[in-house]
Amino acid sequence: MCGAPTWAPSRCARDAGAAMTLIAQQILLGLLLGGLYGLAAAGLSLVFGVLKVLNVAHGELIMLGGYGAFWLFALLGWDPFASLLVVIPGALLLGAVLYLVLFGFVVRAHEEIRIKNSLLVGFGLALSLHALAVRLWTADDRSITTSYGGAVISLGDLAIPLIRLLSLAIALALIGGLHLLLARWRWGKAIRAAAEDWQAALLTGIDVRRAYLLAFAIGTALAGAAGTLVSVGYSISPSIGLEWTLKALIVVVLAGLGSMLGTFAAGLLVGVAEAVSATIFGGPYREVVGLIIFFVVLVLRPQGLFGRSTR
Amino acid sequence: MLEIRGLEAAYGDVRVLSSVSLTVGPGEIVALLGPNGAGKSTLLGCVAGLVRPRAGSVSWEGEDLRKTSPHLIVERGIAMVPEGRRLFASMTVEDNLDLGAFSARARAARRQSLERVLTLFPDLAARRRQLVGALSGGQQQMVAVGRALMASPRLLMLDEPSLGIAPQLVRAILDALVEINRAGVAVFLVEQNVRAALTLAHRAYILEGGRVAGEGRAAALLEDAHVRRAYLGPLAVRP
Amino acid sequence: MRAWTLAILLALALLTPLPLLVAREDVINFVLLVLLSITLAQSWNIIAGYAGQVNLGHAAFFGLGALTTRTLWIGGVPVLLALGAGAAVAVVFALLVGGAAFRLRGAYFAIGTLALGEILRTTVSNALPEISTLPEGSIAGYRLAQRYYLALVLAALSVVVVATLAGSRLGLGMQAVREDEGAAEASGVAALGLKLRALALSTGLAGAAGGLFAYYHISYYPSHPFGPQWTFEALLMTYIGGVGTLHGPVLGAVLYVFLKEYLTVRWVDFHLLIFGVLFIAIVLIFPGGLVQAAEGAHRWLTRRRGRRR
Asked: ipTM score of the complex?
């Protein structure tokens, strides 16, 4: 393009500048989306790390969170960011119920069977929730459009959608809050102890069952929050479950277990990587590149880039 | 007072304990000796609630412990220092100790307990903020004992505390046990170092092949011919 | 198990004259769907039931078989040859990727294959976005009966393969690997080799089923057979029927297709809700599926009868 002698040098520089801006814009959008990936993954990572349970219905929980926010908006006119105040406690409660009714039984088996069973149970749950959602709300795409939905902050040549920026900020705040919770709160430490060595935790006087319940509830709450943010910045439908479960899995595998901040960072990485590959290979293939990276990392280094080796 | 009667335990088809009966009275130091694989750890596991016995009874201060969850057993006043310490390596000394006082009863006395532990093990005071994984074996053992003490137990159980620890630190830990006992805590000790254990304890039991093969006052067992031959001979562990 | 094999094959044999006896196409279509489902379920059963691995990307092989068969057959290759090629392509792909995937244990294998399936589906969806329709001449010469007989043969084949596998040294070796990989390795069973052979059989059958799909449908989107619902259906049918058994997947497939067809009227995905819940119950309460439940009920009944005397 720029090498051919017929192009005037000044025009060449301008076009290169335009291309740079395009790429930068894409990376920015990828970063904003990556924050949601990180939030989505954090819940899955917490549950997997603590309970050793792989909840493949995590994406469906995100979907439910999105619908919660959507209906609060559509029926009651609630601003989606405000509805977080209801969605998060609601998801917390849902998580507690799911643990008591379902996953609490899965954790009774020892680790290898536990992971396999959780996979299957999660699968059944995902299927059921998906079918239920289709029945209740149809398969249509839904999105929340607020009055300030189109607002954009300009940074030089770059346009930052306000809603997505807010979402990133909230996601970061939630992750930060989670990190503090795990580091300072008595039950947060108990959760970490149970994750590391549940027998030693029991011997220390920690009710590991309750720690598991809390971890699962918190994980679900994070999923619900992520869903809310997805419904306002993007769109939701009953089918987003599988998509987000895979996204969360990709991030978790990349980041490894044990660090919430690392998981968030990995989410940002995946968002950016997707954006870059979309620019290079074209839009439709952005998903594929992420999945391929996932598969390669899984085979070469299941403990991820940031995580400690569990093998 | 801990009372075990006719305890039977098995892993699948393998019988590990057969009609084991023993007691640990208030304020006593009782040692449990025997060769590897005799079932000593399993016995402790039954008391701590990690292992469900097939038959027999475990009662603590009159109450049956067999159906109780391990964390509730800690609440009742029994704390265990497991074999290999099993500390939370990703957390600091302070956090590990703090978690030791997790049960409601222990929480109330948290501050005093911490003071006591740091007085007993002054080494730890300087290392409070260090990650436990960075400490030496002996220091980790101190944290493990400290963590159990934070639970304000009336009975402290230890599974092979001297394993893999440098001799001078073993000395320090055993001295600490004497101090702890003097403060009124009963101690139930599984220990490979027979001489050290018998010097420390009031009474001892010998477990061989899942059965109680001998018991008596520690001093007497030190002189016993069978004990000397089996456990204190040239191949036995020297202090 | 011998009895069940013969019973199923007999039932299939009895179904052979169906196109001659019944004029209604919807009945034949229904039975064909059941037969296809049986083949797909049995193919998944081989990996899950006998090698103990949960393959969540099974649709990839179904899809590859469909794609290959369709392309070759429309291009003029005789359908049976195209079908064989479809199965072969599925197997080759499986063996290429299988070696890497089998380094993963348990849950990681499951999510790894899930990703794999999605990679293929997305790629095909982007590369071939247009619907694939049979050329005019083929539509005119379309004979449902031919598809039907092919489905019958494949279903019978899948049952025979599983039956032979279960009793053979290969099958027993696989069972050993499933029970305890470490112990199996120690006693001389080469785990990886067995797993790869199980993978080959499983994906070959799936590819053949895909070929049938391509031969049967007049038009469809090329990425459709790569969709995760095919994997999930195979999984549901096998587990609910009884994973690792011979007749379990057959029963599961029949039940599944029945419920799906009859419940679709009112509530499109209702069968999925039922099966989702049933599936959870099976995983938690009776992992042996309906087969186990039936055997348990049978034992309970005969015990009661015995007591009465």
From this structure: 0.91
